[in-house]
Amino acid sequence: MARVVIDVMLKPEILDPQGQAVQRALPRLGFDGVADVRQGKRFEIELEGPADEAALARVREMAETFLANTVIEDFTVRVEEPADTAGSGSSR
């Protein structure tokens, strides 16, 4: 079993009102020094088999036709390595 991550972001030339709202709110919350914020989407997909070239091609097709609006969004596809759960803690 493999995990594939698809990150979808608005293209740089597309206005991002949610990102702008977050950027404006951060200084009011005490988080200074942030020059820009872009908001996006992340999809984690568990494959039934290995993340071979055929499976990744299918995931890219899925991202291009369903998960991202390629007119205004870009996407990246990557295989995520299994997390080492021994001794790991939450960063939240």
TrEMBL record:
Q: In which pathway does it act?
A: Purine metabolism; IMP biosynthesis via de novo pathway; 5-amino-1-(5-phospho-D-ribosyl)imidazole from N(2)-formyl-N(1)-(5-phospho-D-ribosyl)glycinamide: step 1/2
UniProt-listed GO biological process terms: 'de novo' IMP biosynthetic process
Q: Name one GO cellular component term.
A: cytoplasm
Q: Which InterPro entries match?
A: PurS, PurS-like_sf
Name of the top EC class for this enzyme = ligase
**Which keywords does this chain's UniProt record carry?**
ATP-binding, Cytoplasm, Ligase, Nucleotide-binding, Purine biosynthesis
State the function annotated in the UniProt record.
Answer: Part of the phosphoribosylformylglycinamidine synthase complex involved in the purines biosynthetic pathway. Catalyzes the ATP-dependent conversion of formylglycinamide ribonucleotide (FGAR) and glutamine to yield formylglycinamidine ribonucleotide (FGAM) and glutamate. The FGAM synthase complex is composed of three subunits. PurQ produces an ammonia molecule by converting glutamine to glutamate. PurL transfers the ammonia molecule to FGAR to form FGAM in an ATP-dependent manner.
Q: How does it assemble?
A: Part of the FGAM synthase complex composed of 1 PurL, 1 PurQ and 2 PurS subunits.
Designated name of the protein: Phosphoribosylformylglycinamidine synthase subunit PurS
Q: Which organism is it from?
A: Streptomyces alkaliphilus
What gene makes this protein? purS
